[in-house]
Amino acid sequence: MTQIDRLRALGLFDSRVPRYTSYPTAPVFTPQSGTGFQTQALAALDPAEPVSVYIHIPFCERLCWFCACRTQGTQTLSPVESYLGTLERELDLVRRVLPDGVRMGRMHWGGGTPTILPPEMIHRLAGAVKAVIPPADGWEFSVEIDPTMVDRAKIAALAGEGMNRASIGIQDFDPLVQAAIGRIQPYDVTRDCVEDLRDAGIASLNADLVYGLPHQDEARISATVDQVLRLAPDRVALFGYAHVPWVSKRQKLIDEAALPGDMARYRLSELAATRFRDAGYAAIGIDHFARPGDGLERAARSGRLRRNFQGYTDDTCGTLIGLGASSISRFAEGYVQNAPATAAYAQRIEAGQLAGTKGHVMSADDRLRGRAIEMLMCDFRLDRRELRARFGSLSATLDPTTALIEERFGDLVTLTDDALTILRDGHAVARIIASSYDAHVPEGVRYSRAT
Ligand code: SF4
């Protein structure tokens, strides 16, 4: 049996498992009555511990067919301006319950298209956040950048507010692939954007790529990797295209017949990964790459790599405050998700209520399983000693599952009393292995495929 056949037999091409940017995953969250949990969690924050802040901007000028993000198309700024006002009111509600002195260690603007905001709105939003949660020394401010929706004035405004990390959406540079996913973005436009970001002093750049797109083949993805290497990003995220038209109606515009098959898709991911490794990037977790010395690479080397809603991170803040429609906050006690639809979110805020409508209170078992899954997703290694030290006898509840993993995944893992380690050949099924520890399998939810 070849290695591919072995992985196929283990469900590589059939399994639909979460990406585990949280545990439990968002589909498990249950409706919340009232905002008591969110209010208490915010009020209980320790001002000595910096927090992360995420702001969701759910607007795009174009709606790319492949994208499953929560966003809406707009050709005018009027809904964006109105949303900005709602964000300011949400911040005011947060200010009323937050203890004095809480500082921001990180801020991330995602979407949607944060760079749809013109310079004056960038300053207004950044100023509103900083007035409620001032930045801590050495804070990081990252923004998702759409190269077709940004100019020097917007970059200057973001840099002026402290942006020091930019994440550039690329996906694929091939014109045929771009046309097939409804996202035209010439290489020259992206290159100019990268130059403008560097000229503005943005030291750290991330490039987002996607494999498994329609018409992608080895020559096309290889050419895209060549072009990306010329841009010399510090980090690369290489996500598998998740074809979930039952979740994202836009994806019905994608020609399914042009999607690469199982084997082709796997080869695309392996080819791109090999090219980045050969170019000197360190492989980080299941789908990221980073230059030696980059914060993500250092975190991976020293066992400090973590998962959050953006994927892999070296963020050490224990609390994430999510603002805006659909944003998720993470507290020591559990998760809270704001109303997903922009109108419902705005209605809550206008009624003077925090916008959390769903959530999950973490049990000790959730914390144990969440850490186990995070270890496998980040380090390909379940450190049983760490779990015993942290969770005591509760950690033994994982042992039957660990034994089953050894039985099922045999030569792809090694098991000792200290650790369960996924070997290099098994990295492609790390998500499937990690999902063995998931005790919350929501009914009726269909995740994207494991590779
Ligand atoms: S890829 Fe970006 S620009 Fe395109 S629809 Fe998604 S969020 Fe909007």
Kindly list the characteristics that best describe this protein.
Arc Repressor Mutant, subunit A, alpha/beta, binds iron/sulfur cluster, 451 residues, 20 strands, four-stranded antiparallel sheet, pyruvate-formate lyase- activating enzyme, nine-stranded mixed sheet, single chain, 2 domains
Chain-wise SSE layout:
Blueprint: H1 3-9, E1 30-31, H2 36-43, E2 51-57, E3 59-60, E4 72-73, H3 78-97, E5 104-111, H4 119-132, E6 135-145, H5 152-160, E7 165-171, H6 175-180, H7 187-199, E8 204-211, H8 218-231, E9 235-240, H9 262-278, E10 282-284, E11 288-290, H10 295-301, E12 306-308, E13 311-313, E14 320-323, E15 328-331, E16 334-338, H11 342-350, E17 356-361, H12 364-379, E18 381-383, H13 384-391, H14 399-409, E19 413-415, E20 419-422, H15 430-435
Helix pairs in contact: 3-4, 3-11, 4-5, 8-9
What would you say this structure looks like, in words?
This protein is of the alpha/beta class and 451 residues long. It has two domains: 116 residues, Arc Repressor Mutant, subunit A (Orthogonal Bundle), CATH 1.10.10; 296 residues, pyruvate-formate lyase- activating enzyme (Alpha-Beta Horseshoe). It is built from 15 helices and 20 strands. The strands form five sheets. Strands 10-11-9-8-7-6-5-2-14 form a nine-stranded mixed β-sheet, sandwiched between helices. α5 links the parallel β6 and β7. α3 packs across α11 and α4 packs parallel to α5. It is globular, with a radius of gyration of 21 Å. The protein starts with a helix and ends in a 16-residue tail after the last helix. Belongs to the anaerobic coproporphyrinogen-III oxidase family. Its EC number is 1.3.98.3. Pfam families: Radical_SAM (PF04055).
